[in-house]
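Response to reviewer comment R2.3. The reviewers asked that we include at least one raw input/output pair. We reproduce the pair for VWDE protein here without editing.
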Amino acid sequence: KLTSLALQPVITPELVQGRVHLKCTYSRPSSKLPLRYVVVWSRLSAHGRKEQIQRDTTLQSFAYVEMNGANLKLGDTVFCAVTAFTRDTPEQQSLPEESKGFYAGLKFLPESLQIAEDGKEYVLTVLSTVPIACPEHDDSCKITLQLSTEDLGKNSQSLGPPDIALSACQVDLLRAPCSESSCAAAALTVTAVTDFAQDGNRVSRIRAEPVGRRDLLWRAYTPKDVKVTVRDLPTGNCYSFTDPHIITFDGWRYDNYKIGTFLLCRSVSRAFEVHVRQWDCGGLRSATACNCGVAAR
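Raw output as returned:
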């Protein structure tokens, strides 16, 4: 006779003797008879099908599986399904109840970014859903991630330097008590590069690779890339040309035939200015000045 017992299995990560395990916990029904439980662990395959990786029979209201980097790796989504039965009537089992999928590995929040060439900084958080073990004879309970960027252009083919800049090339994930699906976290900022080119919206990606770890679990793991779409914004331009005619950012036109050193442009919000030097360049009928030097900060 199949019945539902509201076992409500939940997966949580835990360090057991310095190694990463997943724990399946479920509610013990208020049955007077002693119950046994069958816990079946499975993971999602690359094709989206569930593969069984371990089966346990226990009297306890929990069961463990180790993340050993072989049959259970970082990057896997893991499930546990629990069935209960009494010792006297093993053929009468409850309906199997399955946990929600637990993603074991690194997560980026947000998973993808849409930013613009506006100089703003956008925060990207990276977190580990599993606890970080200390290597033997080493107190550094951290994972160091090497970050890199790549331009995918408009058609996902690399076209040159990336359209984004990161605030750090490496981040450290330091071990912390697990809470709300995070056992370690770090943050960095992403900014779109103002490239002075009308090159349309471009796609870049951020790649993270764990470095310096000897254990198989982290060494063989490459997290998913973060896709960053950069919205192209028109860039202001100003000009000083020939004997100098000047066109300002807002389109006004001036002439400046004088000889000397001039402040051409200065920002009121940041440390940016451009100076020009104009010398006589041999006007036949009247004095003519030309740009002969420029200094920019």
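DSSP finds one helix and 23 strands in the chain. The two ends are 81 Å apart (CA to CA). Further pairs are available on request from the corresponding author.
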